[in-house]
Amino acid sequence: MPSRYVQGAGAIDEIGSFVSKLGKRPFVVAGKTSFGKVGVRVEDSLDSAETPLVGFVNSVGECTYEGIDSAVKESSRARADVIIGCGGGKAVDTAKAVADKQGLPVVTVPTQCATNADQMADAVIFTADHQFVEDYYLSRAPALVLVDTEVVGFAPVEYLVQGMGDALASGFEKPAYASTMLKNESDSLATSAAVEVNLRCFSVLMAHGVQAKSDSQDGTMSDSLESIIEAIKLMSGFGFGGGGCAAAHAIHNGLISVPGVARKHGEIVAFGTLSQMMLERRSSLEVERVMRWCGTLGLPTCLDELGDLDRSRLREAAEKACDPEDTMQNMPFEVTPEMVLDAINMVDDVSRSLD
Ligand SMILES: [Zn+2]
């Protein structure tokens, strides 16, 4: 968990006062477009706190080891003592790794809501052509996560919807993970706090998700939008450090191998969550409620909505989802590729039977 979490409209204008408590020589690592959006405000606030920026890298595309190494060189040449990561998941992941490699504190400033990477104590490393390499675990989580709700809430609305799709999983995966660890008498038990906050995340999504999307589109800051941003940015990753993914993300990892899948991470995870609900034999009432919620938001609920899929490859995807190295192992019962394939098809059937 991050040491400090600050959320509110206009929060970026306060960054100087927070950063000056962590260091005197801040260095920004940002995405290609994100620093253009908030850079002037960040610099002004740092100037007024008498901790001016000593340098920046604003060209992060993928989060790669090459990009991290080059930003480490630049920031160390500038004698930076605190790193500010600004942008989407790839930029903040790069910033977190850049700080970690130098033992410096990191402040994350998200500019959109598709991810909860801002608060996580890891960085997902890719190759330059977006092949997953590994999870890089940090020695500590960010010192501060600064979420300006006007910036992330009024970014293109698809980010908010993707963030909700990804956050949806936490209310199912964390409880599954928790009962598996308990059952296996594992040393890695989940805390009750983490389970409770993840479940609470789910109720906030159900209660406020649809309203938040429409408020974001209208440009209206509201309690619903604030609640959803907190659900995505704080609640969904709460206590994740001990582990917490299960079937939903494993099914996502399988599905992305199918040619034709044309949706983003959070959207595919939402479909994976519906499939996990089928694996868990949740009641049709419960499944339909979540499915209708997904449908209203524009999250995919049937195979056609995932893209123009090569369906002959679904079996392979189901096998990949059950890879012993993947998080399907965090389900409290054995899951076979046949069960995954059935669950995916059941989601598809139920979705097409709903009006
Ligand atoms: Zn995810």
Overview of the structural elements:
- With 355 residues, the protein is α/β, with parallel strands linked by helices.
- A six-stranded parallel β-sheet has the order 1-8-5-4-2-3, with helices on both faces.
- Helix 6 packs parallel to helix 10, helix 7 packs parallel to helix 11 and helix 10 packs across helix 14.
- The chain folds into two domains: 149 residues, Rossmann fold; 197 residues, Dehydroquinate synthase-like, alpha domain (Up-down Bundle).
- It has 14 helices and eight strands.
- Strand 4, helix 4 and strand 5 form a beta-alpha-beta unit.
- The radius of gyration is 20 Å and the shape is globular.
- It binds zinc ion.
- Zinc ion (ZN) binds next to helix 10.
- The site of zinc ion has 4 residues, from helix 10.
Overall geometry comes to globular
Highest-level CATH class of the largest domain: Mainly Alpha
Structural class: alpha/beta
Low-confidence stretches: none
So, the CATH homologous superfamily of the largest domain? Answer: Dehydroquinate synthase-like - alpha domain
Helix content: 40-55%
Q: Alpha-carbon distance between the termini?
A: 41 Å
Small ligands present? zinc ion
Q: Mind telling me the C-alpha Rg?
A: 20 Å
Count the E strands.
8
Q: What is the H/E string?
A: EHEHEHEHEEEEHHHHHHHHHH
* Number of separate helices: 14
The main sheet comes to: 6 strands, parallel
- Overall average residue pLDDT: 95
Instruction: Tell me the number of structural domains.
Output: 2
CATH architecture designation of the largest domain: Up-down Bundle
CATH fold-level assignment of the largest domain: Dehydroquinate synthase-like, alpha domain
| Beta fraction | 5-15%
Task: Give the strand order of the largest sheet, numbering strands 1, 2, ... along the chain.
Answer: 1-8-5-4-2-3
